[in-house]
Amino acid sequence: MTTLEGTVKKSSMGSGTWMLTAVDGKNYEIHKGAPAELLVNGQKVRVTGAIRHDVMTMAMIGPVFEVHSFEVMS
Questions:
Q1: What is the pTM of this model?
Q2: From CA 67, how far away is CA 51, in angstroms rounded?
Q3: Cα–Cα distance, 62 to 36 (Å, whole number)
Q4: pLDDT class for 72, splitting at 50, 70, 90?
Q5: Left (φ > 0), alpha (ψ -120 to 50) or beta: where does 32 sit?
Q6: May I ask the CATH class of domain 2-72?
Q7: How many other CB atoms sit within 10 Å of the CB of residue 33?
Q8: By C-alpha distance, which of 62, 72, 67, 71 is closest to 33?
Q9: What is the pLDDT of residues 20-58, one digit of tens each?
Q10: Do the Cβ atoms of 62 and 20 come closer than 8 Å?
Q11: Cβ-based neighbour number of residue 68 at 10 Å
């Protein structure tokens, strides 16, 4: 399991991919099937999940991150 903190953003890459920009500046593509409550542009969150090395996407904006849980940060 991996835990990341950062900001959720809607990317214009591909068909409109959701991404997480971590506090260290690295971008992760949020894997399909993430909770709708997570996908709020500009929302600061802590997410726990797994980096999917077996998944490739058309957007190719960073490693694909499969979210298992999240919490909104204030």
A1: 0.91
A2: 9
A3: 21
A4: very high
A5: beta
A6: mainly beta
A7: 7
A8: 67
A9: 999 999 999 999 999 999 999 999 999 999 999 999 888
A10: no
A11: 13
